[in-house]
Amino acid sequence: MKPAVVLLSGGLDSYTAGAMARADGYTLHALTIRYGQRHLQEIAASRRVAQALGVAQHLEIDLDLRGIGGSSLTSDAPVPTDRRLDDTAIPSTYVPARNTIFLSLALGWAEVLGARDLFIGVNALDYSGYPDCRPEFIAAFERLADLATRAGVEGTHFRVHTPLIALTKAQIIERGLALGLDYSLTHSCYAPTADGRPCGHCDSCLLRAKGFTDAGVADPLTRG
Fold it and tell me: Domains in the chain: how many in total?
């Protein structure tokens, strides 16, 4: 089984991407970043998800991005709620260069592990307009990975797998359910309530709700 580094946030998408990697025969090394995000519940969710996926290793790294700022996820600025989802407008929940930073960390770990495969649950259809979720960005990062590492210079080609990039949220959920995933383990909300429940109004909650509705199944986090 080939080793792969999977960026694991504890959300629905990264859980599904990890499960698809596992189904393809990869040994998973999960990487979770505590970057000063206000929705810290996702860290606990990442641990639940990592255990469910049976990862070989789960590495948690502290990299506080609050000092850089520029995002409502790393500050006290209000998270947008009940807005019309429009992929031409980049919302305040965009964290500057987040996927570039996260993939760089995953790349460094992959080089140490002797892995050439990285998995990330980005999506170019049902998403909130983030520029670092596009195929063009992923292709550019692959080129960078081959140029910026000793392994790349010595002939290793790194591949950044994006198994969800062309799927709707409903298709992602359907794929995960077919793999037997328990989505009650996940956390998606950007602005959870004091008791940790999803707000139901942020972009992430709205996209998740639409996905489950379109898939014709109940979200285990909200039913009942």
Answer: 1
